Amino acid sequence: MTAYRAPATRPAHPVFCTIVPPHVLDHVSRSSDSALAGPARRTLEQDAAQRTRRRITTVRMPHATPRALDEAAEKKPQRTIYDAKHKESLPGRKVRGEGSKPVKDATVNRAYAGLGATFELYLSVYERFSIDGAGLPLDATVHYGENYGNAFWDGERMVFGDGDGEIFRDFTLPVDVIGHELTHGVTQYTANLEYFGQSGALNESLSDVFGSLIKQYGLGQDAAQADWLIGAGLFTDRVEGEALRSMKAPGTAYDDDVLGKDPQPATMDDYVHTGQDNGGVHINSGIPNHAFYQLATELGGHAWERAGQIWYDTLTAGTLKPDTDFAGFARATLDAAASRYGESGEEAEAVRKSWSQVGVTPAEQADKKESGS
């Protein structure tokens, strides 16, 4: 056995990231129907407690405790699924390990498969060995809390609620939810984007982008075939909505009496200035989301190839600052496209066009130089 070691990168600062935005749960918590409001309030309370815990443990223990990694398991996932049994203590009881047969609990099996699908995309397409690039074991806990209406990455593991059965179904159902949350781990180990304002919106957007790519890769879809929805199938039949977010048409994912209307903007003309949700990280992520959609459909083919490669190169190049804004990120994607495909290639032109369509002007080259590596 050899000791697991993370790659030599800038110090990672884990953050608590949920798939369902606080503004959605807050809207539901105000419902006159106690069957809807009660679980939403409890979910918000549990999220607040986990967020506080993450801040405390980040100060006390900024990096996860190294764990052993068998050399014989090189380039293979190391997945472990735990069952919280509807309690709020983590990780819970181990119910399935790497290589073991499926169990009777479909939620456990979906979590196991979703971790594997995420691992597979990053390894097969981008040659990234797990989310940290060095074989980090992937842990997940299912059946968290009572009627918990969310899923989150806490810097160490994935955690899934079963939903309340009224608004939300089981959070292991959409594979892009799993990919989204694990990609927060990839960002944590690479660009380490601060979870506030535009850098936080980029953090969220990158998770949506790669979450969608993981779903598309598994289905073998090209950019034209993909639905570009995040969390499709998560809502129950009583909800007027398709998903949590739409990358193709931000602001159209749902319009419901209980949930309210999807507030995501597609362009900078409708950028939302707010002090809630860390400066609107789940709302304004619609802008870079839509830029990626525009790029992927402009280039055509499989989105995880050229479009995804440009975004991955940008995320992992080491040139992004933790507080990078949309303009800085746009500049970095242009540089990544030029570096891989040539400055005069159709890829660089498509990147430039995609940002123009959402109203973002890439920062000047000088900004990139000042950012360092």
Automatic annotation (TrEMBL):
It comes from the Bacteria. Residues 31-51, 340-373 are annotated as: Disordered. It is found in: Secreted. InterPro entries: Metalloprotease_M4, Peptidase_M4, Peptidase_M4/M1_CTD_sf, Peptidase_M4_C_domain, Peptidase_M4_domain. Its main location: secreted. Keywords: Hydrolase, Metal-binding, Metalloprotease, Protease, Secreted, Zinc. Residues 191-360 form the Peptidase M4 C-terminal domain. Coiled coil: none annotated. Residues 81-188 form the Peptidase M4 domain. Its EC number is 3.4.24.-. Its cofactor is Zn(2+). Pfam families: Peptidase_M4 (PF01447), Peptidase_M4_C (PF02868). Belongs to the peptidase M4 family. Extracellular zinc metalloprotease. This is Neutral metalloproteinase.
